[in-house]
Amino acid sequence: MLQLNNIWFGFDDEFLLEDVSCVIHKGHKVGVVGRNGIGKTTLFKLIQRAYIAEEGEVIVPANWRVAWLRQDVPTTHRTALQFVMDGHKELRAVERRLQAAADRDDMLEYAQLHDTFDALGGFQAEAQAGMILSGLGFDKDDFHKPYEDFSGGWRIRLNLAQTLSQPSELMLLDEPTNHLDLEATVWLQNWMRRYDGALLCISHDREFLDRCVTGIFHLERRTGTMYRGDYTTFETQRAARLAHQGKAYEQQERERVRIQRFIDRFRTYAKMAKRVQSRIKMLERMELVAPLRELSPYSFTIDAPRAMDRPMLSIDEAALGYGELEVLTNITERIYPGDRIALLGLNGAGKSTFLKTIAGELELLAGTRECGMHTTIGYFAQHQLELLDANMSAYDHVVKEEDWAQRQVRNFLGFWGFHGDDIFRPVSSFSGGEKARLVLALIAREKPALLILDEPTNHLDLEMREALSAALNRYDGAVLLVAHDQHLLRECADEFWLVRDGAITHFAGDLDDYEELVARAVQVERQASRSSLPSRKDQRRERALERENRREMDQKRRAVEADIERLQSKLSELAATLADSSTMQSIDNRELQNAFRRHGRMKKELEKLEDEWLALASDD
């Protein structure tokens, strides 16, 4: 089991973790939660031995292999399939030893290593790597593309695929769903449920945690508390604990006030000195119970304009795409005030293309798009985080567009979690979550009639996701949404549009129906992959045939080597004869010509044998 025993760790003389302890058994799946900056990733670094605790110890069993999701991986020419298979380091080591044994013609070791290769799943490794890639949204055409040809988000997916392919007893996943779409998230949920090792997963996706974990380790106020059950169970337990803690705090405060009054009243009385000192010690020993201070730091709303059109936006017989590339065809749709529409579909089906077109960032290839006179649009997409001016602060971004007093700016930004001097920090120092909050705040300030949100919860913590969900439900305008956050979709979407095969259809079911559809498709693909794998009997037959072929090749090569040796011996003898002057004088001209002809034939035959030997060696 993994043990964290009384861990203390910090930076610059300020502790981030204080007296943190927990025990994780094999098969235990734990979600690590807490606000951004609380120390979740630091905890993972301590387990990986990248950081060393100042006090306490981290104990990982010696026989446990640890796999973790790396965010920054050097680019490589390795193909996607090769890169994922590289995660199985033991298998790669056996492959290298197999090649070395073949080079040495060590048939006994070669045969033994083949058994090890089989035991490690070597004959299934490529198919399993392909299955992982498919589950995470890669097409088969992508399997043989170099890692360096993929964009940043897809590289993270490849890093995740390599992590999943690595045999391990402990797996550490830090925000594994951040760059996944809904379909890949559903696939990952199913994969994680089948994983038989110990799992620690940092995530801000509550439904993902509900589907995958059996425990929650909650970090707050520099320490951690373990809860049994999924995230919903954790919320219930924590709410009850905080409510009880609130009452206990009130009782304790009343007792502290009573004791302090006694001390103040009798401090100057000599006869009461012992009793006063007793009360002072009692006050010092009294354990402070933290008050109920777990209110969300976010309290924003998204106001819509008073006037809205019906319909707000119309698109008729439209073709959508880029240049000559047509992604969606013959699209006719309407959006009305109060609509809550979520787009479903595989990655690359055209969801973002549709959002960009509705937002007016892409021109139609054909057809018409009509926007009502009151239909102002607020559009959120990940690329907008990078459009913020890195040298400007949150305060600067607001006052650039609004003639507000500083108090008004402070109040507005405070609703979005920017407090005190944080409003004057440059954007260059912001985390991804802070940038996303600022972009959402700037959009909300405009009071849009139609909100278009493309993966708005990436980088947001759980409290911000809950606040966003609540704000969208209070919002009077229309919402068009793409998200892999299933909780957000369930809370905010009233209807689902399915983007598939170049068209958009209204999906009749709910999110559960769609997830079941995705899961069935994954199961069909998994069964097809398994059926394509050779049986163990076929594998044994194949290995036996390979060994037999190798023996035959080895016998042929040795026979050719013997022929070469005999011919070289004869050539040496004939060359010595022709080089002897006494022999040359004792034979006539005809015999001499015959000797030279034999020497030429033997040289040609030797060249032919050497070519044959090279061919046998290259086929080995």
What share of the residues does DSSP label as strand, in percent? 15-25%
Count of distinct strands: 18
| Widest β-sheet, arrangement of strands | 5-6-7-3-8-9
Supply Rg: 36 Å
Note the overall shape.
extended
Query: Biggest sheet, in brief?
Result: 6 strands, mixed
The helix content is: 40-55%
Query: What integer is the average pLDDT?
Result: 85
Q: Structural class of the secondary structure composition?
A: alpha/beta
Gap from first CA to last CA:
46 Å
Per DSSP, the total helix count is 20
Uncertain segments:
none
In short:
Helix 5 packs antiparallel against helix 17 and helix 9 (231-266) runs antiparallel to helix 10. The protein has 620 residues and is an alpha/beta fold.
